[in-house]
């Protein structure tokens, strides 16, 4: 009798293990490894942007990944399961939600697309699995459950304005940008980050829901600035910023609209308290007439205004450079 009870208890676990194996084999070719180059990025900024993950979501070569991986990348190389490597460029990047869409420069010999699931149907306790490249070990799978889910505004973090799923599946450096799948092999989230005191997995992994990613990347007009920076408020006065807050530029991606405009990144490694960053770059104080504010929401209305611009329209940015306020501008082009 006890033996029968044990068998009944083990059946769900055996069933999930079998379905996980089948689902993994089916969707693994849709997962890619991203190799990022930041040619002028100073080593002070240790963000582990060199290797990450992504997932192919369309037959024409579009890939979803994490914004923090590619937002200020100078070059992106995409490696497929068969070892084929293809360059890619950023189409859209939403920093406040940590999701991005990149485009392959040409299609691989064979392309397989992952289906996007409806993340609204995901429940706490559901079984999931994650495929990525933790510490560079590509196409590694880990399984877990949905530990919690957070609507925009429910969690206090830099990603407070996006919808997140929390999981206990093993997530480490290199998993960022990779897909989280349900038992059916549908993408239900894009891996963002972990909260860890040790630097490794501690069962607190977060991913942006697929519905949020679809809304921001596929339903809205693509926007990519190519600027990576830090909102400063306490340091604003020390750096003579003529307003309560500014955006201290760290790096500017080559071939981005910011690079065409002439915005400059930082070059002087600095550490204040526990934060490391670069000084010497521009401090953005205004974009399209809208001042930078000390809020994670500051770029939402700016992004909306940018997305409304048409080809040929002019983008203006005011920056503080060497103690002087100057205005930079460029026109909107088809490939911006």
Account of the 3D structure:
It contains five helices and 20 strands. It is α+β, with helices and mostly antiparallel strands. A hairpin with a 5-residue loop joins strand 4 and strand 5 (85-94). Among the domains are: 115-219, Thrombin, subunit H (Beta Barrel); 227-331, Roll (Pdz3 Domain), CATH 2.30.42.10.
Q: Which key terms come to mind for this protein?
A:
single chain; 336 residues; alpha+beta; Thrombin, subunit H; Pdz3 Domain; six-stranded antiparallel beta barrel; six-stranded antiparallel barrel; 5 helices; 20 strands
What's the arrangement of secondary structure elements?
Layout: H1 2-27, E1 31-37, E2 51-56, E3 62-65, H2 67-70, E4 75-79, E5 85-94, E6 99-104, E7 127-132, E8 140-150, E9 164-167, E10 179-181, E11 187-194, E12 205-209, H3 210-219, E13 227-232, E14 246-252, H4 257-261, E15 268-272, E16 275-279, E17 283-287, E18 290-291, H5 299-307, E19 314-321, E20 324-331
CATH homologous superfamily title of the domain at 115-219 = Trypsin-like serine proteases
CATH architecture of the domain at 115-219: Beta Barrel
Question: What is the overall silhouette?
Answer: globular
Q: Which class of the domain at 115-219 in CATH terms?
A: Mainly Beta
Strand order of the largest sheet: 1-2-3-6-5-4
Q: Quote the CATH topology of the domain at 115-219.
A: Thrombin, subunit H
> How does the helix and strand content classify structurally?
alpha+beta
Q: Helicity, in percent?
A: 10-25%
User: Could you describe the largest sheet, including whether it forms a barrel?
Assistant: 6 strands, antiparallel, barrel
- Taken in chain order, the helices and strands follow as HEEEHEEEEEEEEEHEEHEEEEHEE
Radius of gyration: 21 Å
Q: Could you list the spans in which at least 5 consecutive residues all have pLDDT below 50?
A: 41-48
Subunit arrangement of the protein: single chain
Number of helices: 5
